[in-house]
Amino acid sequence: MSTEVIDVQGAAKSYRTPAGEFPALRGVDLSVAPGEFVAVTGRSGSGKSTLLNLLAGIDRPTSGRIRVAGTEVHTLPESRLSSWRGRNVGMVFQFFQLLPTLTVAENVMLPMDFCATRPPRERRPRAMELLDLVGIADHADKMPSALSGGQQQRAAIARALANDPPVLLADEPTGNLDSATTDVILSMFTARAAAGTAIVMVTHERDLSGWAHRQVHLADGRVVAEAAR
Ligand SMILES: Nc1ncnc2c1ncn2[C@@H]1O[C@H](COP(=O)(O)OP(=O)(O)OP(=O)(O)O)[C@@H](O)[C@H]1O
């Protein structure tokens, strides 16, 4: 039995375009252990987001195997994907993607509401605990638009952790933040990894990859270099 929480073998993904099939990923292998923080780097168009989307089951590979948290994600029927993702994968994006019509606390409660991972009376206290963890409990009842970018990203991290997922996927999570806030967010990821969460962070900023335990560099849909810290 593998101890890896992410195990990708030969993942390939081609997109159909008017000009024919375009191979965005051409046979990627990736293993990530619990508690490991991996940075996926590469130039624009190298396939980073495509890989993350396969890990999250947002997209399906053309060929290859994607095993995440003990599930062969590529074989899950569409009807089970959202609830599987809600329990097993937290996601953090460059533009936060908080729902603008819900308060910050309600945003953090969403994954618990969606997956019914806790009884309703426990959801708000859990959201408050997470908002406290990321340092914005004071803003719980504000609308996301009243928060700074860094505060919105903290809220998005709290939301991503709501169901205690074993895997956290982040796509350019600091792409819209200043360098001091970037350090705060990345130290939160580091602490989360130390607590056992596997983290895969896509970034085109190579100097940020120093925060990770391991760097996987993609070029033209292939892993061309790997480096451990
Ligand atoms: N739905 C799609 N249809 C056709 N081609 C696509 C589609 N999605 C991505 N691609 C192409 O696949 C390649 C990889 O895209 P991907 O978004 O994974 O790259 P990336 O490394 O994340 O880039 P960036 O850093 O700019 O976000 C690119 O050439 C892109 O144009």
UniProtKB/TrEMBL annotation:
Domain ABC transporter stretches: 6-228
Keyword ATP-binding: yes
InterPro entries recorded: AAA+_ATPase, ABC_transporter-like_ATP-bd, ABC_transporter-like_CS, ABC_transpr_LolD-like, MacB-like_ATP-bd, P-loop_NTPase
Keyword Transport (UniProt): yes
GO molecular function terms noted in the UniProt entry: ATP binding; ATP hydrolysis activity; transmembrane transporter activity
Assigned keywords, A-Z: ATP-binding, Nucleotide-binding, Transport
One of the record's GO cellular component terms: membrane protein complex
The protein, known as: ABC transporter ATP-binding protein
Organism of derivation: Sinosporangium siamense
